[in-house]
Fold these 2 entries.
Entry 1:
Amino acid sequence: MAKPLKTSPEGRKCKFRGCKCPLSIYNHSVYCRVHRDQVALEQIRKTRYHHLG
Ligand SMILES: [Zn+2]
């Protein structure tokens, strides 16, 4: 008996504004691969800026 893989629901789309990239069931993020990186970078930038201010 095969172990069930941990997957996310099918038919989800990237949450990024204007992006309609379908998300893989193996992608547990709410963003597509491109925007997940972009959002992560922006979060880091914001955090740094906040700490400086
Ligand atoms: Zn996207």
Entry 2:
Amino acid sequence: MANAPQLRPLGQTLGTEALGIDLSKPFDDSTADWVRRAFAEHPVLVFRDQDLGAAELAAFGRKFGIPRMHALIKYRHADCPEVSWLTNVEADGKVDWYGVKRATDWHTDSTYEDELPLLAILHAKEVPSAKGGTMFADMRAAYDALPEERKELLQGLTALHGRSIGPAGEKLYGDNKGVTEKEYRDVRWPAVTRHPVTGRPLLFINPMHTYGFDGMAQEDAWPLIEELAEHATQDRFVYYHQWRAGDVLMWDERATMHRGAGDARPEERRIMLRTIVYPN
Ligand SMILES: [Fe+2]
């Protein structure tokens, strides 16, 4: 590479800028490898000053796996359904209140599906004048910092996941969970998993979709999920990304949890493109 890209930390634990890459230009295999290697160690990676259409965003996603359509039909991009809109604006220009509230508590995307996503990518098009960030929690560091007896307990546990029916999902959405094409049944994932490249253990519980554990009563599971979510989202594990228009941010769907900060003024436009990428 003529000018090798560079990394610059943004947050204490997570958040890293990748400098020197223009995502609108087709990039060669060595650049793609560089991004893959950087991403394995830096699970929230930010490319500034980009200007991509939906198809280009999907093409970038395809460097890492297979972008897939999202469960919520309403927000799919008309020309490129594996990309969807994250927006607080309705077609008629009014505030979309579901869009304002959407995903503003801690979660990992789509853990209620039969297959787990690898990563997701957001591209900011219009951002509020202040706040309106996205927050990320480091589930590697969160696991490492657990007390030994919690690690032992979790190693043997399989978690139950359903669409927005965990403690945070019920609190945020209640009976208004948005319209999807299919009905979701439970899926099960180990409470602790490993990073596919680095092998680091990851706490794989999120309070939006995790609602129980195999063989554990609900009254014991619910507080455990809440305890783990609280542990993982302490300030020391969290990075708040303040968006600039043009940012492309990719995050690891297993090594992190995320949420919209939900702290912007709802009448200010906040519009992004997003794609979720699955393993090949
Ligand atoms: Fe999300």
